User: Fold this.
Amino acid sequence: MSEPKRLLEGGGSELERLLLASGHAARPSRATRWKTEALVLIAGLGFASTARAVGPLAQKTYAGALARYLAIGAFGGAAVWGVAHVATRPSANAVQDTPAAKSVHAMPAMQPEAIAKGEVEGAPAPPAADLSSRDSIEPSRAESTHGRGASRARGAASVASRTGAGPNDSATAPSIGSEILELDRARASLAAGQARSAVSALDRYQQAFPKGALQQEALRLRIEALVGLGDRPAARTLTARFESLYPNSPHAKRLHSLVDAP
Amino acid sequence: VAPNGKYDMTSWMVERSLLDPQLSIPQSTRLSGSAALEIHRLFKERYHGLWRFLRSVGVPPDSIDDAVQQVFLVYAERHAAVTKGSEGSFLFGTAVRIAHVVKRGHRRETPADVELAGSSAPSVDELADQKRARQVLDWMLDQIEPDQRTVFALYEIEGLTLPEIADVLQIPVGTATSRLRRGRERFSGLVNRYALTHGTNEGKSR
Assistant:
């Protein structure tokens, strides 16, 4: 059966093509994609880390993909932050200001939906310092910087892995890759049934990335850790906060169910 | 059961994941490394298209990211049941159903700076600005009946074939063809009317 010629491919009028082309060209910002990709990847990583029988080859392949991702994340975050820091405003230093670790009940205010909101052109820059910096430069410039430094990024990641860079190192070169790494420590602790250790990892995350892009994931893990510790009142409080901060999150219902479970 | 008589597994999956708060990924069925890698590959291939599609079918801008994330979470939960080679259909089919759920209670707001029905709407010349053109396109898509709009977006913006769309929506190809025809008629009518009222002879050219 022959299909009608698509409007964009000459089947429509000039105005129809113009309108549809604008729809076809719609794309989320790099920060939005970065964040969503990280959340999807971190989910995959979490599931993989608790699987009982992961084949060695699959582990190696997946580790390779993650390493590439972290390398790109580490370099991209550092490069973009650096460019924005030099070229724009001193307030970008906010990323470097690592306040003392906060207790569960005194977590710093987070910047929730603003990161996810308005990522189509013209939207205001999200408040997270690293993300706003990323948005504040032109995409073409960012891509070109990214492309030129890909090999250097791999090298940097390799050096970082050899020297065992920790959370504090991450704080000086903020990147979503470093955030993932820190959250994965918390996730691994949770999977091993070590809720207290998970809380410690989350405290370190909060200290290193007070305005990190993965606050939603961090809060979710903290709630799970509190449930693991048996501190349901605190878990309920944080779940209420989670729901108010991320009302559209696909995790909200599950968290509710988790804290309310007998 | 879908209209074509097939068991609508995708609907079942989405309904369960969205409506059943107890649903979570059991430890025993969590992803292997290769499955996680596969999801990442699919993400890289399909993310942009899914994001654009969810936008085209009217998911509010502040819910699109969560909706895309939800699509991949559903895939992660159900990947074992997805036939090899039909991952795209599964993802788009999931996106259709998630969009339906998300849109309940939401209504896309016409951007404040574009009053399309009034004289302040951008002229056709101003539509060279893609952002303005997109606002007009969004308004027009909002005027198309949802079923037709979904088929229209999948065919005209995402470039799926009619059999692929039929597979995504679990409907006969004839139904998909009919919805596309009516969607195109509606869209062309809106474009012609807009052209006539906003400064071009475009509407008379076809």
Observations:
- The radius of gyration of chain A is 21 Å.
